[in-house]
Amino acid sequence: MPIYPTQAQQASLEALSWLTGAWRGHKGLDEIDEYWSYPAHGLMMGMFRWVREEKPWFTEHVTITQEPEGLILRIKHFNPGLVGWEEKEESVKFCAVELEPARAVFYRLNPDKPDLWMLYEHLEPGTLHSYFAQEGKEVAPEDKFVYRRFSL
């Protein structure tokens, strides 16, 4: 039995409005930022930046779209200079499988890879946690991305 569901859950994009805003944190000595637009017209847009030794290490462009099968999260990764990791027409794709007022669980839609879930949690005011969970593996505290809300 998987640790989280694997079937898409029908929900409105507005259920993720708590994710909206600017978030900043650290992974060890590295800086991490994540930014989310408000849900509108069936779309939320996100950006992620990882800075290592005061230089951009990589970025991500992320979307969550309202689709007939449910909420779909897509990620495209880029090295500095906007050099993409994925092929032109490809992205890493997840579907929402569990949504609560301050928690979202997305399941990776890739039959060639082991089960992987991406979680966002807004469990305390002004704090956002995001992390990946894999079947049969414990998520160590240092594997979580912990952000604090900040103003631009």
TrEMBL record:
Top-rank taxon: Bacteria
InterPro entries assigned to the protein according to its UniProt record, in alphabetical order: DUF6265
Domain DUF6265 intervals: 17-132
Protein name: DUF6265 domain-containing protein
Species of origin: Calidithermus terrae
Phylogenetic classification of the source organism: Bacteria, Thermotogati, Deinococcota, Deinococci, Thermales
